Amino acid sequence: MSVQFAAATSTSIPVHVIDQNNLDTWTSQQTPMTQAWVVANGFNAGLHQALVVPSSDGSPLMALAGYGNSATRKRGRFHLAGAAGKLPGGTYHIASGIADANLAHEALGWLLQSYRFDRYKSVPAMKAQLVTPEGVDAEEITALAQSEALTRNLINTPASDMGPPQLEQAVRTLAQEFGASIDVIVGDDLLTQNLPMIHTVGRAADRAPRLIDMRWGSKGPTLTLVGKGVCFDTGGLNIKPGGSMGLMKKDMGGSAAVLGLARMIMATDQTMQLRVLIPAVENSISANAFRPQDILTSRKGLTVEINNTDAEGRLVLADALALADEENPDLIISMATLTGAARVAVGPDLAPYFTNNSKLANALEAAAETHADPVWRLPFHEPYEAMIEPGIADLDNAPKGGFAGCITAALFLRRFVTETPRYMHFDIYGWQPNAAPARAKGGVGQATRALFETLKTAL
Fold this sequence. Notes:
By secondary structure, the chain is α/β, with parallel strands linked by helices.
């Protein structure tokens, strides 16, 4: 991957990151030529401003990056990346203006700014490269950035090239890179292996449904990640309108996110026993598509009344969660682009999550703050349990009324995790609607960096 630091060089260009409140002090300490250049170019240290100051022979003497002020910085993140993307070609190093506590964060942002999705069209590479700042763990920051790039690439790839077989191949490639094992159950074998709801949701597609099972690590605590791998979602017989179907290539964003997190864990050689389960399907329309009012029997033995075939993600996750639960790992984490209700609640930027473990929640939220990876805790509100009990079956996959949709979905999933003491569920969006510093428009990882930091100490 091209997302990486530049090799150290004695000729790298110093970058001075300047807070607007400190601009006058900084400029007063510079040569008259530099002062004049700053004024002539209208540099006022606003967020994301970039300016190269030349030496007397015209070569770059230094670069300036506007850092705004504390109030404007609170309204975003990765502010150095916004300036870095505007710098001309060259190798740079951070010379001043970033507190030690923020160096890793801003260095990560610079690497993330360099991400390009160029599978189908040539895209110019980012011109400015960064030398690893002193005191920053280059290996870990690079692993985080490259793992995020993997997540973005998977989500950005259209369903024509990212169906269940291609998602399986992506996992095989990752497993080979890090020496993990992989097992895949495909098509009708899902029925003989008692994964009936994964089969039911995916059976109408011309690319067979499958359960992808990757394992890595032989010692330490046990962690199972379960990611929703719906490679495209038409809505099934409850077909989506065109406007709602337009972004459904990202409906496998949960699987992309857990693969990114798994890569972070493996690339930094964390001491844990990792398992990744991905139910990979397409929710298509055909003569054998499952129907509204069908009643399915899950791996867990619970029956589910289908009141909307467009609420398919929780069905495939349910079988995978039941399988994960049978091993009773120390922690199960599920990630999915699951409900529109979560987007209504918190918008696209926050990753809502559910857990009954306050220790994990506290650790996660602290990590989210330091890693610029925002999350928001929502409750497993037990009085809503009755909303997912239709009467004719154990569970309802799409309760009527429209209230608390992300909570009822989380409660539904929790019914399939009964033996494992700690469970977390993330209802992510997986998409950056508008370009922002370090976050190109398109697929994006959410909560994975915060989870990575949390798992190092709290698992």
